[in-house]
Amino acid sequence: MKRLQLQRWSSSVLSPRARAGSRLHQQLYSTGLRLQSTASPLQSETSIPDDVEHVDIGDPGMMRHVRRVHKRKTQLQYPSPPVDAAIKSPKLAALHARLYLPSRLPVQTLARTLVDASADRNADFNNEALATLGHDLLTHYTSEHLLCNYPRLPLSVIFAAMYAYVGPKTLAAMTKEWGVDWATVPGGEVDPGLLQFKRIDPGTKVDEVSQLQSPRPYAAQKGWRMTVSSKIFYDDEFGDAIKGSAASNEGVTTEMASATFVRAVMGAIYLHAGRPAAKRFFEQHILSRHLNISELFNFSQPARDLARLCARENFEPPVAKIVSETGRKSRHPVFVVGVFSGQDKLGEGAGASLAEARERAALAALKGWYLYSPLNPRVPSSMEEEGAAPWKPAHVDVGEVIV
Amino acid sequence: MPVKGIRTVASARNGVGAFILQCKRLDFHYCNFWASSRGMLNFLTKDLPAFAREHPQIEIRVSPRPAKHPVIKGHYINGHEKAICVRNLEPEDIMKKTMILKEASGDKLKRTKKPVTSVNESVRGIWSPYHGDLRGV
């Protein structure tokens, strides 16, 4: 597969000319003051150092001071650090090296991934676009990994596993583990190596779903039952209701800003270093995390589910039998119960009462079914590699039991 | 709904995939006048550039601290801070102290009692008194 020349797409981030132009565009649209001026925007931007040269009083110390004041003044007029500040930031260079980011990903883009949309509203300088791409890549790679490795997982467990791998909580934890600090207040003079976002006002309700933004009909109805199937259709990758983007004057929580940053890094790697580097980054930072999928199940009635499953798969109906027991008349009895379908033992569990042991046995049997994993599973995106073996269809299951 | 999912956070295993060095910043403080900083000044001029080049993932700050003994401070990802006073030390010894700070995790020093700690389940399983043959008394 031929790789696109993606470096060109992100050139708007890299050139300071583009920055000055876009800033002025923004100013044009917002205030309209520039319309009365005939001066070219770019020239007026570069004329600032010339003015500094005119203040020639022969004192180099004074000149340095004047330059610094001018520089600070130009920095303060931006909501986020200027592009040329990224090269001089030791924090940013250290972060680049700490994450083993490819050298094709410039520090300027890394600086851009640290600027949240709540800090800088201009889409040319915040990480919103990169985060959108990164979020799609992260969820795509995670979902194909889960579906190919555990084809029989119930959908609610897939949602939980997706949340555990690439949910906002995990991504926020990753930001901390990468040693990224955040600035208290965003601004042009802030070190570009700090995560910059505007904080949400205390007391604001974060989880509120507005009717306008969710595609689900009657989303505002609190007590209504939402089926898992409807979550596939209406909700996001984690089974949560889709919230629209926050209003531009509102801030974001630290968790949201951190998650957006990690997604933006993923998107930036994809754009600058290509798909293999993005996949490698995903495997090293996301898939390498430890998640025990068998702990994500919460059954309400495992014995009933197992009976339905056996009926669907044309097994003999499950029968619970005592395997061994001790101290039936004592204060601490232990029963070991196995669930059998004909001659086959489906699962086994130990408990202090016969009912408890039977539940545990049924649970073990259900987990044994749902956690089936094929040998050497391949994911569809592995076909994009050079010289990949011909594709063999992955195991697709009929789905969970419907009770 | 027959089965619900329980939401958790996948826990990090540093070094299983990528390895993130836990020392994120080293501060070097020196004094220009006190003799206890002589070795530190030599270290800063001769050895520190090479050290910084070898460890780009560490942010390095050098700042004077007049009328005080020289100190190296390490800042760690877990938010902790470790400081080592390097007064009257030679550059080679200061390099050793710097490596101590670089390699530290930032946690308090702990005694490890077992050679291996793992989150994975035992392959052999846990011994159960209720399985296997009954033994006569």
Automatic annotation (TrEMBL), chain A:
Matches recorded under Gene3D superfamilies: 3.30.160.20, Ribonuclease III domain
GO-annotated cellular components: mitochondrion
Subcellular location: Mitochondrion
Main location: mitochondrion
Superkingdom of source: Eukaryota
Chain segments annotated as transmembrane: none
Keyword Ribosomal protein: yes
Keywords: Mitochondrion, Ribonucleoprotein, Ribosomal protein, RNA-binding
InterPro entries: dsRBD_dom (IPR014720), Ribosomal_mL44_DSRM_fung (IPR044443), Ribosomal_mL44_DSRM_metazoa (IPR044444), RNase_III_dom (IPR000999), RNase_III_sf (IPR036389)
Domain RNase III: 92-274
Domain DRBM positions: 301-371
MF annotations from Gene Ontology: double-stranded RNA binding; ribonuclease III activity; structural constituent of ribosome
GO biological process: RNA processing
Pfam families linked: DSRM_MRPL44
PANTHER family associated with the record: LARGE RIBOSOMAL SUBUNIT PROTEIN ML44, RIBONUCLEASE III
Family that this chain belongs to: Belongs to the ribonuclease III family. Mitochondrion-specific ribosomal protein mL44 subfamily.
Protein name, per record: Large ribosomal subunit protein mL44
Species for this entry: Penicillium argentinense
UniProtKB/TrEMBL annotation, chain B:
Keywords linked to the UniProt accession: Mitochondrion, Ribonucleoprotein, Ribosomal protein
GO process terms (BP): mitochondrial translation
Gene Ontology CC: mitochondrial large ribosomal subunit
Single GO term (MF): structural constituent of ribosome
Pfam family name, one: L51_S25_CI-B8
InterPro entries hit by this protein: Ribosomal_mL43 (IPR039927), Ribosomal_mL43/mS25/NADH_DH (IPR007741), Thioredoxin-like_sf (IPR036249)
Domain spans labelled Ribosomal protein/NADH dehydrogenase: 32-105
Protein name: Large ribosomal subunit protein mL43
